[in-house]
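Q: Sequence in, structure out?
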Amino acid sequence: MAQQVKTTDSWSAANGTSLQGYVRTTYAQLVALFGEGVGAGDKTTAEWILEFDDGTVATIYDWKELETPMGPYNWHVGGKRGAMVVALVQDVLDGKIEVVDAFWSMKEEDEDVEYYGA
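A: Exactly. Output:
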């Protein structure tokens, strides 16, 4: 079975991730693939949390921008597995990994969080 990825709004899934590298794309492409994302953080204006079917978690976000970059931009990729997580995100952007859902099923620790279909 080919690798797949889902988006989630579970901040607990992203806990412990850190900058691993960058992917160059546009906000429009990210929204087309992953939906509107989980919103803004302390130093971000846009952010997505991805969970691959092997359990790998990646985040995509801008950093310290005054407004969300709309044109080509080097989006930050966070994770725990170094260059491998950046390569996985690039594979999604290149259409090599299928996005199967946006804001998918709840995990037990997130029972009080609302989820939205894409």
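The two ends are 23 Å apart (CA to CA).
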